[in-house]
Amino acid sequence: MARNCKESYCLVLTRGSTGRPLHVSFSRTALFGGIVSFLGFMAAFAYLASQFLLTSPDASTLKNKYEQRVARLETDRAELQEDIKRFRETREGMDAAMQALGQQVGTMQARVTRLDSLGEQVVKVAGLEDGEFDFAPDPAVGGPDESLEGRGGPVKLGGQDLPELAREVERLSERIANRQGQLELLRGMIDRRNVRDQMRPDGWPTDGGWLSSHFGRRVDPFSGNPTYHDGVDIANKEGAEVNAIAPGVVTWAGERYGYGQLVEIDHGNGYRTRYGHNEDVAVELGESVEKGQQVASVGDTGRSTGPHIHLEVLREGKAIDPRKFLDR
Q1: pLDDT digits (tens, 9 = 90+) for 69-115
Q2: From CA 309, how far away is CA 207, in angstroms rounded?
Q3: CB crowding 210-225: b at 16 or more within 10 Å, else e
Q4: Euclidean distance between the first and final Cα of the chain, in Å?
Q5: DSSP state string for 223-277
Q6: Please, are residues 9 and 31 in contact by the beta-carbon 8 Å criterion?
Q7: What is the pLDDT of residue 278?
Q8: How does pLDDT run across 124-136, given as a tens digit for each residue?
Q9: pLDDT given at position 150
Q10: Please, what's the largest Cα pairwise distance for the chain?
Q11: What is the pLDDT of residues 289-321, one digit of tens each?
């Protein structure tokens, strides 16, 4: 127990079994300082303990963090599996596309071959000179077939080389463009030839009739003297149709000395035809006419001895024998 011993406090302790008291005295200052120190220590301990309890995770917090990380890991794994699936699908799609592209290239090659064959046949049928149009295949090439993969070349998808297929498509496109250009020129030549053939006089200028006088030297029916006949005469009944033997443009339609009622048609390409001694004219100057179209009627006008057609064919202004253009 403590008791007040004047200026200090006394603490009496009983020693063991002897019961003899032990007096320990403290000054007021020392006792007060000890109490303050003890209280400060307890306050510091309480503060540190509270901080430790607040910052240290408990078992439930650790479990929540673990579960979150496991969930994220599962999500990443699922996304990775989906990426792998999409990659495989893309790879399969690329393989299929490459295979389809290869088949398309083969089809293009077959079509170009048929196009070349057709072009050669057309050239032969048209009777054009050799070498004017070249539809022969590309020059022959060859050599061992070695894989590019072992030499650092591009990897093949589905057994096909994408860059090589692209180059083949480009070559075929150029070849097709070349053949198309040649065929366009060839068609133009054939069209022009067909136009020339159509414009070339050909046929019989009336329904019925017969050749009553030939081209060249003959005896003049009026004077009896030798003369030169620039056409042929086709006798027919009066009023029968006179038809153009080629398409063209009318350059004369009316009276002309010696011819009576005359129709002259320019067929282009240097050809002109004349139909004389008509009873009347069925076309006008500048009119376009078709082959077989009626242009006049058989008559006996001008210097004539009876109903007939005087037919002339001129080429580059010079009279030529019409019989080579008549189909009788």
Answers
A1: 767 777 777 777 787 777 777 777 777 777 777 777 777 777 677 66
A2: 12
A3: ebebebeeeeeeeeee
A4: 168
A5: T-SEEEESSEEEE--TT-EEE-SS-EEEEEEEEETTTEEEEEEEEETTEEEEEEE
A6: yes
A7: 96
A8: 656 665 555 555 5
A9: 45
A10: 199
A11: 999 999 999 999 999 999 999 999 999 999 999
- Which whole-number Å values give the CA distances from 188 to 65, 122, 124, 182, in the listed order? 84, 13, 16, 10
Opening angle at CA 281, ends 277 and 286, nearest 5? 120
Q: Note the residue count of the chain.
A: 328
Whether this prediction's pTM lies above 0.85 is answered by no
How far is residue 163's CA from residue 237's CA, in Å, rounded to a whole number? 79
Residue at token pair 């002109």: 272
Q: Please state whether 259 falls in left (phi above 0), alpha (psi between -120 and 50) or beta.
A: alpha
- Supply the pLDDT for residue 14: 58
Angle (deg, nearest 10), helices 162-199 and 59-126:
30
DSSP of 164-196: HHHHHHHHHHHHHHHHHHHHHHHHHHHHHHHHH
Banded pLDDT at 1 (limits 50, 70, 90) = very low
Q: Which two tokens stand for residue 164?
A: 């090589």
Query: Which pLDDT does position 256 carry in this prediction?
Result: 94
Q: Report helix, strand or coil for 125.
A: helix
**Which amino acid, 211?**
L
Q: Which residues contact 82 (CB under 8 A, 6 or more apart)?
A: none
d(CA 29, CA 7): 10
